[in-house]
Amino acid sequence: MPDQTTDRSALRGDCAQCFGLCCVALPFAASADFALDKPAGKPCPNLRGDHRCGIHADLRDKGFTGCTVYDCFGAGQKVSQITFGGQDWRTGPKEHARRMFDVFPVVRQLHELLWYLAEALGLDAARPVHAGLRRALEETERLTRQGPEELAALDVAAHRQEVNVLLLRTSELVRASVTDAKGSKGRKGKGKDRRGADLIGARLRGADLRGASLRGAYLIAADLTGADLRGADMIGADLRDADLTDADLTGAFFLTQPQLNAARGSVGTRLPESLARPVHWAAAG
Questions:
Q1: Of 243, 239, 171, 248, the residue nearest 211 (C-alpha)
Q2: In a designed cystine with 74, which of 11, 110, 132, 138 is the match (CB 3.0 to 4.6 A)?
Q3: Whole-prediction pTM
Q4: Segment 154-199, tens digit of pLDDT
């Protein structure tokens, strides 16, 4: 049996157990990512009566790339089946639907934190903060199981700040443990801080980014072909249209499926075991 603190199977979206909340609760803005405008609380015209997407297999071709790079981290089924006890927003009172739509983004943020905390607990280098991480995970999980009123009133930003202190320390510990090809620690440039850096369209082909902090970095359309990203902190990095062809992301941490789905890659791109190679990468190749 997997350790409950590191098992992330429940933190993956299960559309069959969700009432299509991401297709209703969230707003869309007509852009390269979405073919139309849609206000929060209004169902997408492609949402069917069974809460499934009518164009799921053709989202990219139909102009809904944004939908293909979104992941609720399992919040959809949590809100649908646990918070609201399986009561459909279509059949419940209007206030019930409104509250469900308000709660969904809150639980989604909490589930994303659970993803990072569970990953951090699986990193040996972060053992000095494992006790704190475990407490934070348990508290975050407790928060996700509150009632609708409590969740709607929750100060998620404050909770994120508390958790982020632990995630930052985790990042420092993991990146400090990164070794170069010869196994020596403390190499020049190790742990280079690119946090929040504007690297839009940057030419980073073959770059040595081992142990780098890319937290919140803007890597939109950056050329990372063949780049070495082992042991890099990827939390919040914007990888939209970044070229990860033949890049090595093994050991990169706090990287999520939505980030990969937004990028371009190849069969030669090496990924962490917990993440799947996006289907459109094979099509692009």
A1: 171
A2: 11
A3: 0.91
A4: 999 999 999 999 999 999 999 999 854 435 444 444 558 999 999 9
